Amino acid sequence: MFVNTTLCYLMKDDKYLMLHRTKKEHDINKDKWIGVGGKAEPGESPEDCVRREVWEETGYRLGQCDFRGIITFVYRDITEYMYLFTSADFSGEERECAEGDLIWVPQKEVYDLPIWEGDKIFFRLLEERSTFFSLKLVYDESGRLTLAVLDGEEIE
Fold first, then answer.
1. Which parts of the chain have pLDDT scores under 70?
2. What does the alpha-carbon distance between residue 117 and residue 111 come to, in Å, rounded to a whole number?
3. 145 and 155 Cβ atoms separated by less than 8 Å
4. Mind listing the pLDDT tens digit for each residue in 94-112?
5. What's the structural domain count of the chain?
6. Whole-angstrom Cα distance, residue 71 to residue 139?
7. Beta bridge partners of 130
8. Which residue segment(s) compose the domain that 114 sits in?
9. Cα distance between residue 16 and residue 90, in whole Å
10. Which of 8, 29, 81, 149 is most buried, by CB atoms within 10 Å?
11. Cβ neighbours, 10 Å, residue 112
């Protein structure tokens, strides 16, 4: 099964807007901290999807957003292509999210939160690289990261 999703990290004052996933039943991200985003709908481009998802989950309208990379997640029989964006250009009034709590977290503190191991890799890439990247992350049945491949080269 193939799934297309988007993820966006909104940024201001050296902080990321993080979503603490606590409200949905049967959520693979239950109790994890992630950015905002979700599954693409038929006919949507990644840009359409990220703009819609950010609006639905936060109440913010994106202005300029930067397409930073594509993450390929492999888990069980699922391959997910996640289009990763960042944006410091947004407007509107933040509202409550139906999937969890929205909290502005200092960028250096995200590594201390309960996040997926692979997320630590792409946070580092967001900090260190201005160029587009492709990252493949393979997880086992227990949710443990077993393989990470950056731009075609295996990394540790």
1. 27
2. 9
3. no
4. 999 998 999 999 999 999 9
5. 1
6. 13
7. none
8. 2-155
9. 13
10. 8
11. 10
